[in-house]
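Students often ask what a holo structure prediction actually looks like on paper. The answer is less mysterious than it sounds. You provide the chain, you provide the ligand, and the output is a string of discrete structure tokens encoding the 3D arrangement of the protein together with zinc ion.
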Amino acid sequence: TIEAVGAREILDSRGNPTVEVEVLLDEGTFARAAVPSGASTGAFEASERRDGDAGRYLGKGVEQAVEAVIEEIGPALVGFDAHEQRLVDQALIDLDGTPNKSRLGANAILGVSLAVAKGAAAAADLPLFRYLGGPNAHLLPVPMMNIINGGAHADSGVDVQEFMIAPIGAASFREALRWGAETYHALKSVLKSRGLATGLGDEGGFAPDLPSTKDALDLIAEAVEKAGFSLGSDIALALDVAATEFHSEEGYRFEGETRTAEWLTSFYEGLVGDYPLVSIEDPLSEDDWEGWTNLNSALGSRVQIVGDDLFVTNPERLQRGIDSRAANALLVKVNQIGTLTETLDAVELAHRNGFRSMMSHRSGETEDTTIADLAVAVGSGQIKTGAPARSERVAKYNQLLRIEEELDEAARYAGPSAFPRLTR
Ligand code: PGA
Ligand code: ZN
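The corresponding structure tokens follow.
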């Protein structure tokens, strides 16, 4: 039973304020959760509440969201059974009363939702992945490690937001993580040898100034081989284009030219032919439904097409995407929708309709590792949580090491089966 709920304003990995929530249950169990925050946020995401007081944290303070937890949400939840996650989350949605959680704030609501789940797991004396996933949770995800950052996450001239490596050929998560870290270090020396910058972007990847998408892919391909791995069978590649960021009424402003959805689709088709790409996220903008459907019919049998800004972890938008065959995978971000229950509903809807799911961090993160447990709980087979460097990213990968160790012989690493192209 929930006895008390508290909250405070803490800092995220970009030095911006975010909400941390603490829940106390009557058996003395205590749990804490912190809320992440995006930079390339989708227009259809649940609404993150910021104070807007320019005198504090450039208007980004979250004192009102913290106050909403302490004054309104807490008192409303006292007496609820923490194991009744669906009832707790419905109470939060009802208390807020808006379609996008803007009154109390999705950041206030999500913090409470996650802290309640963690409290319930602790009260049941189970690890979170086991509490949420049940006795059969055993699949360790492929870590999609973002090693070159562009777009809204870096000041480089690179339009594509994320260049990821996927160590599909590893035998375990632990080995996959080592391969990723070794490739990351190899990439650093490749960049240095070319006189390119080795400063980092928001998600811990390098942020060199590069003329094109292909240049970035070539540098990564070189790093993979320099680290001693075979490109494609050991380590595959993936992109998050985050195309909404460079889309306007005129079209897609990409690598110095204005392009159409058709042009980008054939561009990606060329990339899929030239590089071992297993996944492309947000190849087009969040409202280009027709473009997505055409792109998915051209490429969806060869590569995973992931909707992030398009679906915003929202079951209604996902249903539209399923009906129109706009993609074949769902990116899962707990703070896009704002409660754990709705997140689990979105994943279930995806899986039931043959969509894959990729668990995801945000570019603004904290030391909270809930998404690592969530990835194993729902059997995503894929997680993206940044580079194999910087503690707010590595915290999630480290938690997956612990989960793999705990599962011991029962653990299975997803490997190539996580992606459509490689299972054909
Ligand atoms: P964001 O970026 O957290 O800044 O939205 C992550 C992504 O686009 O996947
Ligand atoms: Zn994205």
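Residues 168 and 243 are 26 Å apart (CA to CA).
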